[in-house]
Design goal:
Elements lengths: L8 E10 L1 H6 L6 H8 L5 E3 L3 E9 L4 E6 L9 E7 L4 E5 L2 E2 L4 E6 L5 E7 L5 E6 L7 H6 L2 E4 L2 E3 L5 E3 L12 E2 L2 E3 L9 H8 L2 H17 L4 E5 L8 H17 L3 E7 L2 E3 L2 E3 L5 H7 L2 E5 L14 H12 L5 E5 L3 E5 L2 E5 L1 H4 L6 E3 L12 E6 L3 E7 L4 E7 L5 E6 L3 H10 L7 E4 L11 H9 L12 E7 L5 E7 L5 E4 L8 E8 L2 E3 L71 E5 L6 H10 L3 E7 L10 H9 L3 E7 L2 H24 L4 E4 L16 H18 L4 E4 L18 H10 L9 E5 L22 H12 L5 E6 L22 H18 L2 E6 L12 H4 L9 H8 L2
Parallel strand pairs: 10-11, 10-29, 11-14, 15-16, 16-17, 17-20, 20-21, 21-29, 35-36, 35-42, 36-37, 37-38, 38-39, 40-41, 41-42
Antiparallel strand pairs: 1-3, 2-9, 3-9, 4-8, 5-6, 5-9, 7-8, 12-13, 18-19, 22-23, 22-28, 24-25, 25-32, 26-27, 27-28, 30-31, 30-33, 33-34
Length: 888
């Protein structure tokens, strides 16, 4: 078929054909053309039509369309058109689509000498394993990988490549190495502009291609992938030209080329690919990877379902053996129409922790029934049989859906890959196979898939496996229940301490982490037997504020030493701390420190605070061990999460979205509280010249939404500002805390926090005093005025949470740094009594929900004397613990 506007010049066509039997029997003496073509035929193709011989005369038009009758009784999903070129001696794939007339339409710009239809047979699938810059290639991922694609390189405006590759790969391994070059380090902050500039000129393309070729050849790589995302539609021709020229250069050096494209979109019955011309790109690259959606329902079988319909069209545009399905190997957490990749354990985190009923707390007598349950959301487990995909549907208190966790097990991943077999794709990319949090059977399932071994069959139902253990981990009872069923067990004639542990199990898989599947509680006040703990992350410690508030008379500045205060100090009496709605705890260096935990228990503390650092790309699962440790020692856990001002300045809104998403991931792990950032009114914690309560509130709002969507029970605490009045002395670097808090209130922050964070750490007089500080009368000097000022600003609409409250004393240490000389004469006795008094006042005020002592066991002592604030003093004693305990 020729277009009427372009019929060529004196163009003529002579067609002849051989049926399948004649083609197979042809010999060189009778049909030399058929013999050569038969020998060149790939083993994976089976002839399903006559072989048409096409001879032409004259000048051919720019495009010709062939229409070939479809063979009977042949699956159309595996039917391909191929053309043979006498000069190259090769068969090449011809894009073709089935039309409504029941024929195959084959448009082409290059007329082959022979044309035929073939059925495609499966080949050994290619499994591509990317490595993100925050990951390292795992041994299990390396064992199943056909291709390893480390990330980390990005194009610059001059065409060069910047960055460094993710670690862990081996250039001498059996897999191919094809680094992926991206126009982003984080997919939420792509850079299409730089790519457009490079592709827009011949010199730009040439420079970029030369850089890629040199990088690939010099490092001994097998090729590269190009992943240039979010390109505008008008860059379609430029991207095609870049990939044509890059492929020509690298293929000439014996290297491979892959390109990563977004999923096609169906608009009014037509498939649209924007800047990414699948047909043109597929003609020149070796791999065309399609980034498929996270939504599991997109993979439902059916001609009108997204993935199936798209692939049916796609194998007509690109050789199916080049097509690679871009998938995620981890689980997916769905909230409304939003989907996020999470670890297997994170997906189960909303089930909560073990809780004992009131009769099971305290000293349980032998023979007393013990009832335990999970304290998280109501959960409805199930299996989507069409996808072989287990799920847990989490419900709100009124029974309405809250979220759905889709659990990517090895069997579910295998079922998804097997569903692609109907299209005989070339392979799959497992985007997070080197990430933490895979279901235990994923890599084994992939190994079986590569070898075409059968899968494990139907998925098992989720259940709870409860274990009651005595001293030394001795198993006393083991019971398996439904996911929504409580444990009721009676221990006859058993005395001593025991632990109630739980695992979420599914066949041979077990999720054994606090907040999702493992929890331990002591029914007595003696230590609970603990399972072996994993290593705890080293926390990022926020330095104590060093800015000294300037005053009108200049008193209290650097090097200021107050007069000795010899007044006796008396701790409050028993019953002064009114527990109930008020709770208290301490900030520790490490959640697995038994020294800190013992001191906190002595003081009657129930909360443990740990500060953790966020950097882009960090997985929330990194923090699970901290939650486990705190819970295992009997404490509620407050996570203070702070990032770096430089990252925030560089990323802006995109960084805030990433940070908020990280907090949502943390919330899914089941901590009791999260403090969103730390002291954002200082340039030590927030980018200079952008410090304001309004800017912080935009972060808080996004964080609050993500946290509550993941786990509504998590207490969200706004970041406590640093108490300071130094704004005038340090413009752009500091905003006074009262002004900052008022800006927050004016920006709606009270709608995005359950508790308002407060820091108080500069007192050198007792917490009952409202005057007498020798420095000045500034309100941050005095506990009552701090409390009243903050309460007044927020209008009493939210409770206050002191996330740091401490008194500095150098006793037992050398002299203080000049910045902190104001505390030189504070004694340990005063520190102890004042902390107990502050707790008493806070608990009785009706304004304070929580008070965290800054700090328990820090030892650093220099320009930032954290050890001077610690209540565990040099030598190991804790006078403050006794004072606080005595005031309960």
């Amino acid at each position: 078929v020729l277009a009427p506007a372009d019929v060529g010049l004196d163009f003529g066509v002579a067609l002849s054909s051989l049926d399948a039997a004649g083609f197979q029997a042809a010999d060189a003496s009778t049909n030399a053309w058929a013999t050569a073509a038969r020998f060149a035929l790939p083993a994976s193709l089976t002839l399903q039509s006559p072989v048409y011989r096409i001879q032409t005369t004259g000048d051919a038009p720019d495009a010709v369309t062939f229409s070939v009758k479809l063979p009977a009784n042949v699956p159309l999903d595996t039917l391909d058109a191929y053309g043979y070129d006498d000069l190259t001696g090769r068969w090449r794939f011809l894009p073709a689509q089935v039309n409504t007339a029941g024929t195959l339409t084959i448009p082409t710009r290059t007329i082959p000498q022979q044309l035929a239809l073939f059925s495609a047979a499966p080949i050994t699938p290619t499994l591509i394993v990317p490595i993100e810059i925050t990951q390292s290639l795992t041994d299990s991922a390396a064992q199943v990988a056909s291709v390893v694609a480390p990330a980390g390189m990005q194009p610059a405006l001059d065409g060069s490549l910047i960055g460094s590759l993710a670690p862990g790969f081996n250039v001498n391994a059996s897999y191919r190495l094809m680094p992926v070059i991206r126009n982003y380090f984080d997919p939420r902050a792509t850079d299409p502009g730089t790519v457009a500039v490079l592709m827009g000129s011949r010199s730009g393309r040439s420079a970029h291609i030369q850089q890629i070729a040199a990088f690939t050849a010099a490092s001994g790589f097998d090729g590269v992938f190009v992943d240039y995302r979010d390109l505008p539609d008008d860059q379609r021709a430029n991207l095609t030209l870049l990939m044509e020229e890059l492929s020509s250069t690298l293929h000439g050096a014996g290297l491979l080329v892959g390109v990563i494209v977004p999923a096609a979109q169906n608009q009014n019955g037509a498939w649209v690919t924007g800047a990414y011309d699948w047909q043109a790109l597929g003609a020149v690259v070796d791999y065309l990877q399609i980034e498929l959606p996270l939504d599991p329902t997109a993979y439902m079988p059916g001609e009108d379902r997204l993935v199936e319909a798209m692939l049916r069209w796609g194998v007509g545009e690109v050789s199916r053996y080049k097509l690679v399905a871009g998938l995620n190997a981890r689980s997916v957490y769905q909230t409304g129409d939003s989907f996020a990749v999470v670890s297997y354990d994170e997906a189960l985190a909303a089930l909560g922790d073990v809780q004992l009923d009131a009769q099971s707390l305290g000293n349980v007598m032998p023979g007393t029934p013990i009832r335990a349950s999970l304290d998280g959301m109501t959960a409805q487990p199930g299996i989507d049989t069409a996808l072989a995909l287990p799920f847990v549907r989490y419900l709100n208190g009124d029974g309405t859906p809250n979220a759905t966790a889709w659990l990517m097990t090895g069997g579910a991943l295998r079922a998804r890959l097997d569903a692609f077999d109907r299209f005989v794709l070339g392979g799959a990319t497992l985007n997070d196979l080197s990430a933490e949090g895979l279901a235990a059977d994923v890599t084994g399932s992939l190994a079986d898939y590569r070898l075409r071994l059968p899968g494990d069959g139907e998925a098992a139902e989720l259940a709870l496996r409860w274990r009651v253990e005595g001293a030394g981990g001795v198993l006393l009872s083991e019971v398996e229940t439904r996911l929504d069923e409580d444990l009721v067990v009676t221990l006859e004639a058993v005395e001593g301490n025991f632990a109630v542990n739980v695992e979420v199990v599914q066949g041979d898989r077990a999720s054994v982490r606090s907040g999702a599947a493992v929890a331990q509680f002591r029914p007595t006040i003696t230590p609970t037997p603990m399972p072996t703990a994993t290593a705890t992350l080293e926390p990022t410690i926020t330095p104590t504020l060093q800015l000294i508030v300037p005053t009108a008379d200049g008193g209290g500045g650097i090097g200021f030493v107050p007069p000795v205060n010899n007044a006796p100090v008396v701790a409050p009496g028993a019953g002064s701390i009114a527990v109930g709605n008020f709770e208290y705890g301490g900030h520790v260096t490490n959640s697995n420190s038994e020294v800190a935990a013992s001191a906190m228990r002595e003081a009657g503390m129930t909360w443990m605070k740990v500060q953790v650092g966020y950097v882009p790309g960090r997985s929330p699962s990194d923090i699970a061990v901290i939650i486990n440790d705190a819970r295992g020692r009997g404490f509620k856990i407050l996570l203070g999460v702070v990032g770096r001002p430089s990252d925030l300045a560089a990323g802006g809104g995109d960084y805030i979205a990433q940070y908020a998403g990280f907090l949502g991931g943390l919330a899914a792990l089941g901590p009791d509280a999260i403090e969103v950032w730390n002291e954002p009114n200082l340039d030590r914690e927030w980018p200079r010249d952008t410090i304001s309560g309004a800017n912080y509130t935009s972060m808080l709002a996004q964080a609050y939404g993500q946290i509550k969507a993941a786990n509504p029970s998590v207490l969200v605490i706004s970041a406590a500002p640093a108490p300071t009045g130094a704004e005038a002395a340090y413009p752009g670097q500091v905003v006074n805390d009262d002004k900052f808090l008022q800006q927050m209130v004016n920006s709606g922050a009270l709608g995005y926090a359950d508790c308002i964070g407060v820091h108080y750490n500069e007192g050198i007089v007792g917490p009952t005093q409202t005057s007498g500080d020798p420095r000045d009368a500034y309100y941050t000097r005095y506990f009552p005025s701090m409390l009243d000022t903050y309460w007044g600003i927020i209008g009493g609409q939210k409770p206050l949470c002191f996330t740091e409250l401490g008194y500095l004393t150098p006793e037992g240490y050398p002299g203080l740094d000049p910045y902190f000389a104001w505390a030189s004469n504070t004694t340990v006795a005063q520190q102890s009594a004042w902390l107990a008094q502050a707790m008493s006042l806070a608990s009785q005020s009706g304004k304070v929900r929580m008070l965290i002592v800054w700090n328990i066991d820090f030892t650093a002592y220099g320009t930032d004397p954290q050890g001077g604030f610690a209540i565990v003093r040099p030598g190991g004693g804790c006078p403050a613990c006794a004072a606080i305990a005595g005031a309960r």
